[in-house]
Amino acid sequence: MAPQQEQSAAEPNPAEAGAAKGKKKGLVLGGGALALVALAYMAALLAVPKKAAQQGFVTQLVAPLTSEKVQVNLSDGKSFLILDLNMVYDAYDVAYYESRRADPLYCAEMKDVLVGTASAKTRAEVSDKVNKPIFMEEIRSAVEPLLFPVHIGATTSPTDADPQSGLAPGVSIQVATFRGAFHEHVLHVDGVAHTLRLDSGPLTPFSGDETDLPVAAEDGLALFVDVTGLKRGFQGDIPVGVKGRLRRVLWNEVLIQ
Predict the structure, then answer these.
(1) Radius of gyration of the chain from Cα atoms?
(2) Which of 8, 61, 75, 199 suits 240 as a labelling partner, its CA being 20 to 30 A distant?
(3) What is the pLDDT of residues 25-51, one digit of tens each?
């Protein structure tokens, strides 16, 4: 009987081959599972809604304060001043200033404020190197609430009522001490409980017939709201505030006679 030949070293052992195959399969399955976990993690990240970027002002814009020159008699009764002014301002949208200039009410109020401010001055108070900057700041302070009034809700005109809630600016809105940026502040409205809250300020109750309701923020600064048009049972938050800021008023042309 011929001696049994030894198994070739190149021929794999069936048991060892099976084990190696199982190990390789396990590695493949393990890698696939890890890939699935990674994909699921990335999908979860993408599924999380990103916080909307807060809209900010476009800064250092320059434009004429009025479309026409304004003539004013000074307080001495003998001299008059022709105001031709520029302004430096910030706004969310350049078109906002153009919309204000196209508003006849704004134009009339702007001229009234300029005449009222300048007519109380003497010749020296509008031309002296020391007094002139003070005069310019008085004009800036007086006209800013006209140029950038407080809006109640998503309105184009500051005199309009908010289409979502029905709330409108109060009668005294132009003297509001609260002048926060429109995209940074909200009015919390509860038409069921009949309360308003400006940001984190105190609750302000109302009955429903107020046309000039003061609503204060946490720091005490207040705006005025007309609640007579509030939609029945409305509950939600609406944005409130100004859509720009007047930085400086500058001479464009000076004529004093």
Answers:
(1) 35
(2) 61
(3) 554 445 555 454 445 545 444 444 444
